[in-house]
Amino acid sequence: MLSSINNRISQVHLTTDVKQTIVAMLGVTFGISMYIFMTGFMSGVNDTQADLAFSALAHVRIYNDGPTDHSNIAQKIYPNDLVNVRNAKVIKYTDGIKNSAAILATLAKQKNLTGFTSQVNISVFFKNAGNKVNGTVSGVDVIGEDKVYGCAKHIIQGNWSELKYRSDGIFVGVELARVLGLKMNDNVNILTSDGISRNYKVIGIFRTDVLSVDKSKAYIAINAARQLLGVNQDYVTDIQIDMEDYNNTQPLIDNIKSIIPYKVESWQMGNQQLVAGSSLRDTIARAVSLTILLVAGFGIYNIMNMTINQKIREIAILKAMGFSGGDVTKIFLTQAIIIGILGGCVGMVLGYIISRLVNNVKFEIAGMHHLPMTYYPHNYLLAFVFGLITTFVAGYLPAHKASKIDPVSILRG
Amino acid sequence: MSVILKADNIVKHFYEPEKFQVLKGISFEVNQGEFLALVGKSGCGKSTLMYVLSTMDTDYEGSLIIKDTVLTNKSQNQLASFRNENIGFVFQFHYLLPEFSALENVMIPALKLKRLSRTEIEEKAYRNLEMLGLKEQALKKVTKLSGGQQQRVAIARALINDPAIIMGDEPTGNLDTINTQIVFDIFRELAQERKQTIIAVTHDDDFAKNCDRIIEMKDGQIVR
């Protein structure tokens, strides 16, 4: 009931000393805006990190991980005896993925995938005149590759879709081109580990801003790669899969692991350092923001305590006139909550403004132009809820104390 | 005449700084419409007794009955709502809420009681202020009023719920002769015409002399 006498008293208390109310409110505002800014910034950094990482990394990768070690079978039969096999070797009977069509058909039936593509990756030496650089050449499905990695947007010279029609064409990384002294339409020689050598024509140059990629990678059409290796149309070395939610790869892996006879690996398994980095940043952001909110909470607690000490005689009078302890708690808790709601609303706006300002700060490293920032509504909501909880707790303690005031000791003086 | 307040063998101790018996078995009755003065030297326990009678102090032995209701051992919340309805207070230092106007100060206990609508309460508060000669000051902040005016606002507030008993802790202790006379006349009128009971702790002999009955205390006991 808005017109109740308790609310009227809260309202009068808040509006009599407006300065003090605003100071208390600013505490919440500051806490919430910092929380919003910190989480927005951190998730912006994480998203950018993910974008950078996933320009060279698929969410899930299927590949031939090599054979299991069966070089000493006898030991398994006589576990208690010493079995020695001299000069044992682990022999790899299969190379790459043989029945890729069947696997691709299985993948097509899975849910939550945004795309998948097959690759034939070959370790090679790139040679131009006297220069020799080792690296990887990727035979790619031109359309699928673009869908999974967004290759087209990294191209700085040439036209990505041209690769589809040019079995002699090659796209090289910008650093690799620099080291080898390659320009558009130059020839580059490729030497595989099996000693096969072939010339390709540079029809494009790309830059991913991941140095290790730009320095050692080149793309050719997948059929050209198969030709180079002399393998059939079904042969691939990797199948790369992109998912709707890159943090949620486990269900897919559980689904297909048992029916695919090759290694199925999520990016998390292969790149623990990225996972660790991103969750550490999240933890720091949360810790800092919660600390700020906690400090704001102490601010409110102090101001409410001060208010109550100032108004101790009035509280005694209210009790003498028949207000119960519950009424007194309500009067002061209402004030705290109003401070919390007002401070929270202003805090969300201020948080948005700070985020916008920081978002405009120039930051030109690794292909970025401005500091990264996100504006997820759920972060704003969460900040508001945390702010309210903080004010509620910070307001409840002094309000409860006020309700316990013994009017006799105050009124007798 | 019906008995409105009955105190039976009230005993109270103070524990700080050391155990000390302030009230040593006090028993008396007050009739409806009686104007009673509680007198005695400082430290004789008269204020302590009044706070016990007011239901605010619950730390005593013995029993207290007001308007046929046994108040001993009731919960703080029950006592608060009982006070709200049945007891009005006037203190030596008026104790108004400084952020509010005179009118609002008078209205607050009635808004808490919720027996009447807001407009009815407002009308009644105006009537009370008018009776006490404060109609012009109704909308002023209480901090802008003189001491005598503030004390009258406090009386108007004490009257708003038509309580059976009005208690005063030195209600005229802070006032000059003229204002003391005004306050006294108001109390007198309330007792006679509205049959409201007045219990006032006072040091003022003239004030006490004109009351219906004087209870004099000494060392925690009633001597007269």
Task: List strands and helices in order, with pairings.
The complex is a heterodimer of chains A (413) and B (224).
Chain A: H1 5-16, H2 18-53, E1 60-63, H3 73-77, H4 100-108, E2 113-128, E3 131-140, H5 142-149, E4 155-158, E5 169-173, H6 174-180, E6 187-192, E7 197-206, H7 211-216, E8 217-221, H8 222-229, E9 238-243, H9 250-257, E10 263-266, H10 267-270, H11 272-310, H12 312-320, H13 325-359, H14 377-403, H15 407-411
Parallel strand pairs in A: 3-8, 5-7
Antiparallel strand pairs in A: 1-9, 1-10, 2-3, 2-6, 2-9, 4-7, 5-8, 6-7
Helix pairs in contact in A: 1-13, 2-11, 2-13, 2-14, 11-14, 13-14
Chain B: E1 3-14, E2 20-31, E3 35-40, H1 46-53, E4 61-66, E5 69-70, H2 76-86, E6 87-91, H3 102-113, H4 118-131, H5 147-159, E7 165-169, H6 177-193, E8 197-201, H7 205-209, E9 213-218, E10 221-222
Parallel strand pairs in B: 3-8, 3-9, 6-7, 7-8
Antiparallel strand pairs in B: 1-2, 1-4, 4-5, 9-10
Helix pairs in contact in B: 3-4, 3-5
Short description:
The complex is a heterodimer of chains A (413) and B (224). With 413 residues, chain A is an alpha+beta fold.
Which properties best describe this structure?
heterodimer, A: 413 residues, alpha+beta, 2 domains, six-stranded mixed β-barrel, 10 strands, 17% strand, B: 224 residues, alpha/beta, Rossmann fold, six-stranded mixed β-sheet, four-stranded antiparallel β-sheet, 7 helices, 36% helix, 27% strand, globular
Question: What can you tell me about this protein's structure?
Answer:
The complex is a heterodimer of chains A (413) and B (224). The two termini of chain A are 35 Å apart. Chain A has a 6-stranded mixed barrel with strand order 2-3-8-5-7-6, surrounded by 4 helices. In chain A, a hairpin with a 2-residue loop joins strand 2 (113-128) and strand 3 (131-140). By secondary structure, chain A is of the alpha+beta class. In chain A, helix 2 runs antiparallel to helix 14. The model of chain A has no long low-confidence stretch (mean pLDDT 86). Helix content of chain A is 53%, strand content 17%. The longest helix of chain A has 39 residues, at 272-310. Chain A has 2 domains: 5-53 and 275-411, no CATH class; 60-71 and 91-270, no CATH class. By secondary structure, chain B is an alpha/beta fold. Chain B contains 7 helices and 10 strands. The model of chain B has no long low-confidence stretch (mean pLDDT 86). The chains are: A alpha+beta (413), B alpha/beta (224). Chain A binds chain B through residues 3-5, 8-9, 12-13, 16, 313-314, 316-327, 407-408, 411-413, and chain B through 47, 51, 54, 56-57, 76-77, 80-85, 89, 91, 93, 95-100, 108-109, 111-113, 118, 157, 169.
